[in-house]
Amino acid sequence: MKEKNSLLRSGVATLLVLACLWATQWQFQRGLDRHEKNSIISARIEKPDIELMEARETVREYEWRTVTTRGVFDGSNQILLRNRYSEGKYGFEVLTRFTDTAGINFWVDRGWVQAGVTAKTPPVVSEVPTGQVEIRGRLRLDSSLPQGAFFALPASKSGGLIRKLNAQSGLESENFYIDLISGSVPELTPDVPATLPELSDGPHMAYSVQWLFFAGLIIYGRLLIRRSEILPSKQF
After folding, report:
1. Contact partners, residue 158, CB within 8 Å, separation at least 6
2. pLDDT tens, residue by residue, 101-118
C-alpha cells in the first residue's frame, strides 16, 4: 500500500513538473514573439513617410508606418471614445470619418480632448476643415498591439475598434484607421495626439524562469518526501 502511494505521489509530481516545463517554454516563446513584434513596430515607426495608396493593398505589412493622403473629413460622422486618459485627466478620443480622393472611407483618430467640467458638459472638439486637405498619420489596425488576458498579455484598448465604430455609425469603412499627426492646415495638428505605445517586452522571461523554479521546488519536495518514506523503514 505504501509503495502504491509512493508511486502515486511520484506520478503526480511528474505531471506537475511537466506542466511547469510546458509553462516555461510557453512563456519563453511568448517573450520572443512579443520582442519580435515590438522590434517590428519600432522599425516601422522610424521609416520614411509613404502614400496611403502604396500601403493599401497589403496594409498588414505597413502597420505603424507614417502615411499621407488627401481627401475630405465628414464632420457629421464623428465619434467620441470614452474612458481615455491623458496625464491622469479623463477625456475622449475623437474619431472622424474621412474619404480620400480615391473614394476610400476610413476613420481618423484626431487625438484626445478633455471631458467637460460635468457629465452633462460636452468636451470642446475642434471642427474639421471643409474642403480637401492633406493628412499625415500612423497607419493602424485593430491587431497593431499584442492582445490577450493571461499573465503578460495585456488586452489592447483598441481591440475591435473599427467594428465598433462602424456599428455605432451604421457605416462601413476600411479595416484600418489613422492616428493623425498633422495636416495641410494648422488646426489639423492635434493638441494631444494619439500616443505611441510603451513597447515593453513584458515579464514573459521572468515568468519563464519562475515556472522553472516551481518545477525545481516540486522535484526537491518530492525528494524530501521520498527520503522521509525510506528513512523509517531503514530504522525499523
Report:
1. 140, 142, 144, 145
2. 999 999 999 999 999 888
